[in-house]
Amino acid sequence: MNFSSKDYLPNSEERIDHLRRIVNGRTVAILAAGSSINDLEKRISELRHADICYFGLNHFVQETYILQQIDRHLSVFMCSARKNIPRTIKDTINFLNRDENNLLEDCFVF
Q1: Is residue 34 part of a domain?
Q2: How far is the CA of 24 from the CAs of 17, 18, 19, 38, 45, in angstroms?
Q3: Of the four, 10, 48, 77, 110, which is 20 to 30 A from 83 by CA?
Q4: What total number of domains does the chain contain?
Q5: Rounded CA separation 57/60 (Å)
Q6: What is the pLDDT of residues 25-54, one digit of tens each?
Q7: What is the three-class DSSP state of 24?
Q8: pTM, rounded to two decimals
Q9: Is 8 within a domain?
Q10: How is the beta sheet containing 27-31 ordered, strand by strand?
Q11: For residue 75, is pLDDT > 60?
């Protein structure tokens, strides 16, 4: 990849390397709103011993109500709309202050 292209964000190569270290070959589960999240909530205990990289979108509700049942956290969080920032700022700060290897991504929709 040509990271010197203006099509990439600054430090893209380092950001991708950081994400690779966090994922570290694990299965990635993207926790988004939808009907399948209801099934996950009911069956999350089946994943208690699985080494999964959990990726959350826009809010921490999946972590609070689902992942906490198995003592897990999100490893990657992405806020995709500016309007969500006031609702998630406290949880986002707590996420970043954890003594864990995690990553905050933003992809703002204007």
Answers
A1: yes
A2: 10, 10, 8, 27, 23
A3: 10
A4: 1
A5: 8
A6: 999 999 988 888 999 999 999 999 999 999
A7: coil
A8: 0.86
A9: no
A10: 27-31, 52-57, 76-81, 103-109
A11: yes
